[in-house]
């Protein structure tokens, strides 16, 4: 049996401080109070209040930052021969060793979705790799479903261990910590928390109860084929897309979306040199595929939505054997017009043509 | 930084080629001494000065910005400075809401022959900036989070529109449907506590139409997409103002749009509703009464009284019924015409400049640049060609820093000067709850103060104030540079 | 101290069959795939008003000497401070002195490329993508159809095949442009016309004073030429509208979809199959392409 520890609620700051000795940053969910309250992952500092809620924004930032520098470049002249110019490039990844504390199983599975194209593709991504390999994921299991989530439709669940190093379950005011990966194992062995093996059955029971709270899931096995077959059915996609505003709320809040843009900033070869940035990009934007010639294969929002849904439920599975949607439901609950990707997938399954 | 004197500050001057630049030249030829803090950028006309030039300079570290051009009535291009005067005055009144001291920005009229006046203007402005010292930066501010007080009194009774003539409206729409491409409205979304837009094409679609406090989206946002196709739209009072503004700007044609209206009794602030509901697995029931709704989630009842849980904009709403409509059914509640400050703006009004800067620092940090604010805005019609994405001109970088994020909000707000109807969709759409509506509200307030209480989207025939000018502006007075 | 992690469990996951791309025969850059090799522009050729050809040499002589690519592979050419764009390497692989790119001015990066002069520094990420399956074409006749800037990828494969003439049957080229002034490689065309191994036809859209060659749109000229589809591979490249009608013409002439080959382009950023914009269904032009047969394209969603 894997290592199991128990963390009392008052022991949380000490444990986070233990984690910060092992990592350069520990990301924890904190409340950002506003009229519309949000929960965001932020680097932990002593005294910071932590909430064990599902975050508004998943901790994807830990491996794929909103914006990062891929390269910096600088030009230098040989003072003896001014025609002799050298360009120096620095491509050191910005990679802090990171622990994520208290993300949800859907968030942790998001890292697995990203791992496949970034690590297992034709070209492993060195920036992603550097961050991913120094990442430890502490996941807290959900005690129930929420109104928009559907993790159990797509292979996950409220206590799915996939992508996690340590799985935590809340029992009354304490947390039971269960090592999942060797890294999690090593960390838990190293910490001075008391053994929690005797409360494991209670955690098991809580996890079962969470599963039981979920409505039965539809069978999505046919989804990849059905959605692919619907490609040419403009009426279908039109009817599913008419309300879409083409904003990026769904993609930027998705733990499994990873499209990005690369842009150059700075003054090129000027005194300050320049930077090549990678930033999140949004496939729902018309500019995403807009070519310099003016041609745009996905000019309208209908083909863009079709591409987004197809990528999650058809083409990513075609390439990697599993959905690139973890059912976290953030795209639904945060959509300004309450579009529901579940409904689109179900409609596709129902569609006879 | 200058070699001899490191006490210099960074002041950017945008000078019109024909007057102010000439004036500076005249001063130079006359050997009139001038402070050297000013970095002059020559522009063809003060009308060329986009307020964003000023903001970009201030956000990127300028300690002061001076715009100078020909005297009113003396513009080389006849009217450039008249337009500039309106824009720059609005900008001046906008800066404080961000936490930027408006004394750091000034505009002045100097003719090519007025070397002495130029010397005087630039010297006194530089003195002023020196007295203020280097400008504080958003990066350095300590994030401040504060929640607006939502204990508000509405200008009219808020309710759930239980008596609205929805069925009659459905019949009217069905009758009109054959001549329309579609009719935009609302239907129930993924559960009883969420609505989603409805595009009615068949009578069966019309039967799905819902009316009530969950109809938060503004359907006017879709109208420009249907340009040239005759389209119907069901509106709340606030939505109708967006339709009117679109008409004012010729972005849609009156003959292409059929407006259906019912009196609105307010909409719910879904964010605050969600906060009270907490995490729940499913909604069992939503029950309405005159004053509010009761949502049963996971078997537990939660009561939401409209007076306590309406959207911020609803409390100050003076247009519960569409200001323009082809079909109006029912009578709205009477509005008690008291002017009120919207909640977030009131909160900012109570803060010191430094607190406002800290506030925006604390808010903008979590912006994801998803542009839901922009795309939910019915007035943001250049969506796919937004300056935020433009590489030429290159207004913004992709850096995820406060200045870039806040700069976009100021772009959005300034582009909405005199156009924003306050529908609040930008703020509602924000997934991380940044109270960006306050920036638009501040501009709307400035516009109302400057231009005879002008409010966008009330009169289809009215010219938006920043698209026009008066040779003599009643409320814009020249600064005293004596 | 950072925790050291074992990632074996992650690598062990079996991949679905269609995810496994057979790229073993493909030259690929090693190291950080986002890091360009710094190169120097050695020559700029003004082809037409809108097209310039750049010859660049990688600054590291060892890398340049070892640089190997197959005809049809592309490179990401970057102007530092502006950005990157994808272009085919259109010099034949036998030519080891420089890499040649032909660039039509269209957007921000191409405009910056057009401003480059000899001695300027650029970045090159190459070779990327697949290539023309020229080894499988041995013993066959090859018919090239190029329109406008679409001649660039054809140039490299055509020159490559002409060097191996003994292995192939008849090699023909139909090259069309709007007007004689819009023809790239004009300095080479005379040589192509006189090359006995190559049957070269030129056409322009509208009559032009002094034009000795054909006048007409490419699909019509192609129908008149009526190449024999038996044992023949048609390779085409050009603007989308030309591709569309030329495909119709080729089908009319009896070419089978598996014998029609084209090379595609889309907006690309990463060039390595991740960033998500150049996909057609589940295939990515940057790694599964740019070279496709019509048969392959017909099996994909129609989203070009």
Entry keywords:
heterotrimer, A: 353 residues, alpha/beta, 7-stranded mixed sheet, 4-stranded antiparallel sheet, 11 helices, globular, C: 304 residues, Elongation Factor Tu (Ef-tu), domain 3, Rossmann fold, 2 domains, 6-stranded antiparallel sheet, disordered N terminus
Structural overview:
The complex is a heterotrimer of chains A (353), B (482) and C (304). Chain A is built from eleven helices and eleven strands. Chain A is of the alpha/beta class and 353 residues long. Chain A has one domain. In chain A, helix 6 packs antiparallel against helix 9. Chain A is globular, with a radius of gyration of 22 Å. Chain A starts with a strand and ends with a helix. The mean pLDDT of chain A is 92. Chain B is an alpha/beta fold. Chain B contains 16 helices and twelve strands. In chain B, the strands form three sheets. In chain B, strands 6-5-7-8-12 form a five-stranded mixed sheet. A four-stranded parallel sheet of chain B has the order 2-1-3-4, sandwiched between helices. The longest helix of chain B is centred in the N-terminal third of the chain and has 19 residues, at 80-98. Helix content of chain C is 23%, strand content 28%. In chain C, the strands form three sheets. Chain C has a seven-stranded mixed sheet with strand order 10-9-8-7-11-12-15, sandwiched between helices. Chain C has a six-stranded antiparallel sheet with strand order 4-3-6-1-2-5. In chain C, strands 13-14 form a two-stranded antiparallel ribbon. Chain C has helices at 8-11, 61-66, 108-114, 151-162, 186-194, 218-225, 240-253, 285-288, 294-298, and strands spanning 37-46, 51-58, 74-79, 83-88, 99-104, 121-128, 141-147, 171-177, 198-204, 214-215, 232-237, 260-263, 279-280, 283-284, 291-293. In chain C, a hairpin with a 4-residue loop joins strand 1 (37-46) and strand 2. Chain C has two domains: 37-128, Translation factors (Elongation Factor Tu (Ef-tu), domain 3); 134-263, Rossmann fold (3-Layer(aba) Sandwich), CATH 3.40.50.80. Chains in contact: A-B, A-C. The interface between A and C is large, with 77 and 62 residues.
């Amino acid at each position: 049996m894997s290592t199991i520890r128990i963390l009392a609620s008052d022991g949380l700051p000490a444990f986070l401080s233990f984690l910060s000795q092992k990592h350069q940053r520990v990301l924890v969910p904190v409340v950002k109070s506003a009229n519309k309250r949000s929960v965001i992952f932020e680097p932990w500092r002593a005294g910071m209040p932590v909430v064990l809620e599902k975050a508004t924004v998943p901790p994807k930032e830990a491996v794929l930052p909103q914006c990062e520098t891929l390269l910096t470049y600088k030009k230098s002249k040989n003072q003896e021969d001014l025609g002799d110019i050298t360009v120096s490039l620095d491509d050191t990844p910005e990679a802090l060793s990171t622990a994520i504390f208290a993300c949800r199983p859907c968030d942790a599975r998001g890292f697995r979705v990203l791992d496949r194209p970034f690590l297992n593709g034709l070209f492993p991504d060195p920036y992603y790799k550097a961050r991913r390999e120094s990442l430890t994921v502490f996941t807290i299991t959900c005690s129930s479903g929420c109104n928009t989530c559907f993790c159990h439709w797509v292979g996950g669940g409220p206590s799915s261990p996939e992508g996690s190093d340590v799985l935590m379950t809340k029992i009354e005011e304490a947390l039971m910590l269960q090592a999942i990966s060797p890294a999690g194992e090593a960390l838990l062995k190293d910490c001075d928390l008391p053994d929690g093996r005797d409360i494991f059955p209670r955690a098991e029971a809580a996890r079962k109860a969470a599963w039981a709270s979920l409505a039965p899931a539809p069978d999505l096995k046919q989804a990849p084929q059905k959605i692919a077959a619907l490609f040419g059915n403009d009426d279908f996609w039109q009817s599913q897309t008419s309300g879409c505003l083409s904003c990026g709320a769904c993609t930027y809040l998705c733990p499994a979306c990873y499209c990005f843009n690369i842009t150059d900033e700075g003054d090129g070869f000027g005194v300050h040199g320049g930077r090549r940035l990678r930033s999140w990009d949004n496939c729902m934007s018309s500019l995403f595929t807009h070519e310099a010639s003016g041609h745009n294969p996905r000019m309208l929002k209908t083909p863009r939505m079709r591409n987004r849904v197809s990528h999650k439920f058809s083409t990513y599975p075609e390439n990697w054997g599993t959905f690139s949607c973890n059912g976290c439901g953030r795209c639904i609950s945060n959509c300004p017009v309450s579009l529901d990707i579940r409904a689109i997938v179900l409609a596709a399954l129902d569609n006879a043509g | 930084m200058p070699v001899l004197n490191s006490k210099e500050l960074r002041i950017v001057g945008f000078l019109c080629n024909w007057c102010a630049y000439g004036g500076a030249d005249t001063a130079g030829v006359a050997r009139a001494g001038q402070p050297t803090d000013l970095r002059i950028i020559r522009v063809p006309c003060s009308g060329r000065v986009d307020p964003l030039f000023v903001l970009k300079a201030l956000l990127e570290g300028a300690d002061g910005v001076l715009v100078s051009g020909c005297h009113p009535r003396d513009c080389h291009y006849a009217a450039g400075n008249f337009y500039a005067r309106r824009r720059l005055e609005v900008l001046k009144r906008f800066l404080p809401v961000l936490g930027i001291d408006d004394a750091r920005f000034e505009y002045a009229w100097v003719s090519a022959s007025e070397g002495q006046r130029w010397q005087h203007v630039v010297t006194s402005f530089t003195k002023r900036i020196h007295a203020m010292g280097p400008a504080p930066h958003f990066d350095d501010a300590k994030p401040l989070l504060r929640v607006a007080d939502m204990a508000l009194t509405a200008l009219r009774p808020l309710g759930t529109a239980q008596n609205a003539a929805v069925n009659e409206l459905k019949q009217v729409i069905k009758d009109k449907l054959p001549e329309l491409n579609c009719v935009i409205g609302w239907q129930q979304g993924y559960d009883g506590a969420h609505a989603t837009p409805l595009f009615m094409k068949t009578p069966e679609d019309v039967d799905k139409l819902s009316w009530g406090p969950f109809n938060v989206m503004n359907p006017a946002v879709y109208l420009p997409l249907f340009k040239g196709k005759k389209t119907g739209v069901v509106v709340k009072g606030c939505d109708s103002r967006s339709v009117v503004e679109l008409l004012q700007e010729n972005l849609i044609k009156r003959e292409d749009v059929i407006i259906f209206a019912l009196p609105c009794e307010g909409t719910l602030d879904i964010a605050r509703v969600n906060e009270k509901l907490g995490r729940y697995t499913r909604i069992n029931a939503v029950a309405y009464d005159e004053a509010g709704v009761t949502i049963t989630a996971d078997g537990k009842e939660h009561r939401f009284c409209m007076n306590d849980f309406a959207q911020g904009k609803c409390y100050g709403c003076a247009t519960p019924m569409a200001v323009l409509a082809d079909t109006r059914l029912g009578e709205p509640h009477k509005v008690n015409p008291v002017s009120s400050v919207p909640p977030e703006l009131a909160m900012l009004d109570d803060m010191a400049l430094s607190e406002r800067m800290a506030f925006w620092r604390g808010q903008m940090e979590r912006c994801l640049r998803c542009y839901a604010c922009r795309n939910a805005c019915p007035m943001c019609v250049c969506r796919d060609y937004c300056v935020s994405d433009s590489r030429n001109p290159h207004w913004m970088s992709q850096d995820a820093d406060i200045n870039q994020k806040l700069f976009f909000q100021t772009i959005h707000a300034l582009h909405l000067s005199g156009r924003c109807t306050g529908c609040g969709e930008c703020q509602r759409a924000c997934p991380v709850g940044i109270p960006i509506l306050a920036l638009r509200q501040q501009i709307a307030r400035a516009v109302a103060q400057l231009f005879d209480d002008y409010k966008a989207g009330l009169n289809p025939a009215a010219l938006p104030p920043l698209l026009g000018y008066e040779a003599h502006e009643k409320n814009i007075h020249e600064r005293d540079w004596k | 101290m950072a925790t050291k992690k074992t990632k074996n469990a992650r690598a062990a996951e079996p991949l679905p069959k269609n995810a496994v791309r057979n790229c073993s025969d493909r030259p690929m850059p090693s190291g950080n795939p986002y890091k360009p090799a710094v190169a120097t522009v050695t020559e700029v050729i003004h082809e037409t008003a809108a097209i310039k050809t750049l010859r660049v040499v990688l600054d590291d002589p060892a890398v340049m000497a070892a640089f190997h690519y197959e005809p049809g592979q592309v490179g990401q050419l970057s102007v530092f401070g502006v950005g990157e764009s994808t272009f085919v390497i259109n010099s034949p692989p036998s030519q080891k002195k420089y890499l040649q790119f032909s660039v039509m001015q269209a957007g921000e990066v191409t405009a910056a490329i057009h401003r480059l002069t000899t001695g300027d520094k650029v970045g090159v990420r190459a070779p990327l993508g697949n290539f023309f399956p020229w080894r499988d074409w041995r013993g066959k006749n090859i018919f090239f159809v190029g329109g406008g800037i679409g001649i660039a990828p054809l140039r490299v494969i055509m020159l490559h095949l002409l060097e191996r003439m003994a292995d192939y049957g008849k090699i023909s080229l139909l090259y069309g442009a709007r007007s004689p002034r819009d023809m790239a490689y004009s300095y080479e065309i005379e040589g192509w016309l006189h090359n006995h191994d190559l049957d070269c036809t030129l056409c322009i859209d509208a009559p032009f004073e002094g034009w000795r060659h054909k006048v007409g749109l490419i699909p019509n000229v192609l129908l008149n030429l009526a190449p024999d589809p038996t044992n023949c591979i048609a390779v085409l490249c050009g603007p989308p509208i030309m591709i569309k009608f030329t495909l119709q013409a080729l089908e009319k002439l009896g070419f089978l979809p598996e014998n029609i080959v084209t090379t595609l382009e889309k907006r690309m950023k990463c060039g390595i199959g991740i960033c998500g914009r150049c996909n057609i269904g589940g295939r990515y032009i940057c790694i599964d392409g740019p070279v496709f047969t019509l048969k392959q394209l017909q099996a994909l969603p129609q989203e070009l």
